[in-house]
Each structure stands twice: as structure tokens, then as C-alpha cells.
Amino acid sequence: MTDPSSAEPASIIGPAAALLTSLFWVLTSLFFATAGKRIPVTAVNTARIIMAVVLLGTTHVVLHGTLWPDIATHQQWIALALSGLIGLSFCDQALFTAFVDIGPRRALLCMTTSPIFALFFGAAFLNERIVGVAYFAMAVTIAGIVWVVTERAVGDRDAPDTGPSRFRRGVALAMLASVSQALGAMFSKLGMGIGWLPQDQHLDAQSATLVRMVFGLFGMAPIVLTYVVMARRVADHERIRPRWVTGLLLTAGGAVVGPFLGVWMSLVAFKHSPLGVAQTLCSLSPVLILPFSHFLLRERVTRRAVLGAFVALAGAAALAFAPDLQALLFSPRAGSG
To answer: Distance between CA 198 and CA 333 in Å, rounded?
Structure first.
């Protein structure tokens, strides 16, 4: 079965899905951050993927009538497996470790390079071409994101005080996460058959998300087994008493908007947009979280952060309509009669 959205104009589906993805990442970060204060982080990370697999499998039965998708070629299986292992398991592990080593703000700054890698992979392996206006819009969007992420970099209390070796390791892991995110996106697009299979053999985004998440769960298994022992020791040492009901409810909310809807919408974005464009629009969560920080978390949002947000959103708007802007600005005007 093809993606129900495939008959709609591709020019708006991809950017809209990518923007929804960024919004879902904001919501899932809020859910998981709150859940992690009530139950061990290992439990949150494990439960979120298991819940997502259950949700995706149930949705696949409703939409397609089967529990598992019918995939046309072995190459698609391999591509989706690599997408799940690299883009979910390895990327998340590297990024979470970088959060500990250098802090979330510095790690997110490194992650803003992911659209650049996605642009390269799309051009090198998917034969994607991007109009000139899109390059400028991508640069503006990334600049706005960097501006927001670095707004409190000087004297940031959340940044850990690390030595040179740990700092280098954190930066290296964050950059590996950035490359892995873009590489996982490329393999997911190849797994759907975009760019190399006839359209009637393309796998829809929801089915691809299910396969990708299952392989991501397999990749997390050894990591989780290691963390279970470590988390138990920490919990016993600090005498933490988990609040499981509240924690699992929050985790379930995060699983719905993150690994379920968020990853699904990201694959819709990759399917209907060039990889670099989709990855840029999927990276707006540091900007979109500002209203939640101000109104929900009661955090102070500076003028610089607001200005950076407007710059990023202006770039995102230009990126979403880049083909139309390219035609408007550079197409030769018809001569008058």
C-alpha cells in the first residue's frame, strides 16, 4: 500500500512533516526529561522504543491489514536495518554520552551540522539537486539555530566542567551523532525505495518507520543490558525511590509524540523533500522549544534567543517555499506583446 499522502503536492508535504517533526521532538524532550526525574533514565529509554514498536505495529495493522510490511527487495531490508541501527541506536547513544561530557547546549551546537552532512549524502547517493535559494535559506536557518543554542554558552551552569580529553571525546561523539543522524536518514530514504525503485514498489513512511524502529530496538539491547546494571547501582547508592506510575505515563506520552509520531513524520519529510532540506527543517527544536521554556517552564528567554528564533523561522519559511522563490526571483519574465 502506498503512502496516503503521496497524491498530494510534494512541495508542501515534506516541509510540513519536517516542521511537525521538530515540534514533536520538543514535546518528547519535555515528556522524557520529566519522566527521567521519576524513574531511571535507562527505563525511560527502554520503554520508549518498546512502546513505539507496539504503537507502530498496531497502526500498521489498522492501515494495512498486516502486522509486518511486505518489502520488495533485500536491499530495502538492509537499508532499513542500517537506518535503525545507525540513525536510532548508535546516534542516540553517542548523543546522550555527549550530553554528559560537554552538556546539551554544546552537543546541540555540534548537531546543527547534520543538515550539511544530509545535503552531501543526498547529492552523493540519491542524486538530489537543490535550487540556489534553498542553500541560502539553509544557511540562514542553521545560523538562527546556532544563535539560539549558543545564547547562554558563556558561563552556562548546565555545561559540565570537563578536562581537555573529555571535552574532545564529547565533541567527537556529538559530531558522530550528527553524521549518524544524516546517514540514518539517507538509509531510510533508500529503504523506502526513493530514487532507485519504481514508484509502485516504494514503501510508505509508516511501514518504514516500523521496520526501522524494530532494528533500532535490537541495536539498543546490548546498550540497555549494560545500563541496567549501572543504573541499579546508582539508584541503590543514591537511595532513589522511583515513582513508576507517573514515570511510565510520562514515558508513554513521550513515546507517542517522539519515536511514534516524530520518527514517522521525519520519514514522510525525507520521502517528499531533498534530504538536506528535510534535515534542516527537522532540526528546529532548539528554536521551537523557546515558547515552552518561557510559558511552561518559567525560564527567562532573552531578546537574543527570540531574535535567533525569528531568523531560523524566516529561513525555514524560505526553505519550505524555495522552488517558488527561485522561480519568482530568477525565472526570465515573459516579454510583453
So the answer is: 36
**Type of residue at 1:** M
Which residue, chain included where needed, has cell 538562527? Answer: 144
- What is the rounded CA–CA span in Å between residue 80 and residue 61? 20
Instruction: Provide the pLDDT for residue 2.
Output: 43
CA separation for the pair 108, 98 (Å, rounded): 9
- Which residues, in sequence order, are CB contacts of 286 under 8 Å at separation 6+? 108, 145, 148, 149
CA 320 to chain centroid: 17
Give SS3 for 156. Answer: coil
24-45: per-residue pLDDT in tens? 999 998 998 888 788 876 678 7
d(CA 310, CA 304): 10
Residue 309 in contact with residue 290, Cβ under 8 Å?
yes
Position 8 scores a pLDDT of 43
Taking only the tens place, the pLDDT of each residue in 264-309 is 999 999 999 999 999 999 999 999 999 988 888 787 888 988 999 9
The residues, ordered by sequence, that sit 6+ positions from 92 with a Cβ below 8 Å of its Cβ are 45, 177, 220
